Amino acid sequence: MSFEYKDHTADTIVHAKGVDLKEAFEQAALGTYQVMTDISLIEHKITKEVNIQSEDEKSLLFDWIDQLIFLFDTEFFISNKISIQEFSKNNDIYLLKATLEGEEFVISKHSQKSEVKAMTYSFMEVGENYVEFTLDL
Question: Which of 23, 27, 49, 61 is most buried by its number of CB atoms within 10 A?
Fold first, then answer.
């Protein structure tokens, strides 16, 4: 895994990197889920498809992580296998299409770490092969 956490007074700053920006977004998802639970315990029982369109790279990152939080909050879905099939820009629209494999979070099986309330634009950075963002805990 290629993500780490940076000190912040009340929240968590996730720094994720990859060989390219697509892989950094995949690592950002894993970093987000790892804040919630021990992702090594997740089994691949459910597959979810995620499609996102945004106006720029920062909005794409925000919408991506926000969608993962939404899936957890509404369906208790959590994943440790993330594969982005499409990561492109088309006529000033940024596209992300991904497959997530995981299962329903069950407190008796999965350790509960921190509750992630929201994704924020605070301290957000998007580079060629890394992203950094803050999770509101």
Answer: 61
The pLDDT value given to residue 110:
94
DSSP state of 113: -
* pTM metric for this prediction: 0.92
Q: Residue 69: in which H helix or E strand, if any?
A: helix 57-75
Residue range of the domain that includes 99:
3-136
Q: What is the pLDDT of residues 19-50, one digit of tens each?
A: 999 999 999 999 999 999 999 999 999 999 99
41-59 CB burial, b ≥16 within 10 A, e <16:
ebeeeeebebebebeebbb
Helix H or strand E segment including 15: strand 12-17
Decide: residue 111, CB within 10 A, 0-12 exposed, 13-18 middle, 19+ buried: exposed
CATH number of the domain that 112 lies in?
A: 3.55.10.10
Report the Cα 11 to chain-centroid distance in Å: 16
* Domains of the chain: total: 1
